[in-house]
Design a protein that fits this description.
Layout: H1 2-17, E1 21-24, E2 27-29, E3 47-49, E4 52-56, E5 62-69, E6 74-77, E7 96-98, E8 105-107, E9 111-116, H2 134-141, E10 154-157, E11 166-168, E12 176-181, E13 196-200
Antiparallel strand pairs: 1-2, 3-4, 4-5, 5-6, 6-13, 7-11, 8-13, 9-10, 9-12
Length: 204
């Protein structure tokens, strides 16, 4: 009986010891996120590179993780940079941001995506490409958007009717984008919360 209790306690200790991964720099890595084979759930891979916690897209492009809310099953990654004096996102050659179809992560409905340097075909879409679009504020008031000034731009709020696994950029479409979480009309650009919020499905 004593031996059985010891075995159970050892097993519990072993399992719980592999739940959460060590901190990466200053960021806690809660379960089920996994930075290596010895912790977390490997379906929820993230990467700790030189004390910087990162998320990799399906094309293996790296995005820094800004924050994690484990109780809401959410994390926020930094949007790609836009090359200085150009209007191309740093992930342009990868086609933008994409998750695998079988990924436990998805792009949440709290993201306002702004697209820049778009072809005229986008005017056939239901996106907001008007002079009052949020993207105009980004072009005019944010240094990172100055290279996109004067291009055709639009914004949209990701919703459940859209693909939750992709933000696309390409030649013949739009060549750059940024994203803001929980953007409200009237918010000033210096208060925008730049990032791409991802949700994950909890493990079974």
């Amino acid at each position: 009986m004593v031996l059985m209790i010891f075995f159970i306690l050892t097993l519990i200790s072993h399992v719980s010891g592999h739940d959460a991964c060590p901190k990466c720099g200053s960021i806690e890595v809660p379960y089920p996120l996994s930075t290596n084979e010895n912790c977390g759930d490997r379906r929820y891979k993230v990467f700790c590179n030189n004390d910087i916690l990162q998320f990799h897209s399906a094309e293996d492009f790296s995005y820094n993780i800004i924050s994690i809310n484990p109780s809401a099953y959410k994390l926020v990654i930094s949007p790609p940079s836009i090359a200085k004096n150009t209007c191309y996102s740093s992930d342009f050659s990868f086609g933008g941001f994409r998750l695998n179809d079988d990924s436990p992560f998805n792009i949440s409905t709290h993201n306002t995506v702004m697209l820049f340097n778009c072809s005229d075909n986008i005017l056939l879409s239901p996106l907001n490409c008007s002079s009052t679009s949020f993207c105009r504020q980004f072009e005019e008031k944010v240094q990172a958007g100055s290279g996109c000034a004067g291009t055709l731009c639009c914004h949209f709020l990701k919703d459940s009717a859209m693909t939750s696994h992709r933000i696309r950029v390409r030649d013949g479409g739009c060549t750059a984008y940024t994203c803001v979480v929980d953007l409200n009309p009237g918010d000033t650009t210096d208060s925008w919360n730049y990032g791409i919020e991802l949700q994950w499905l909890p493990p079974n």
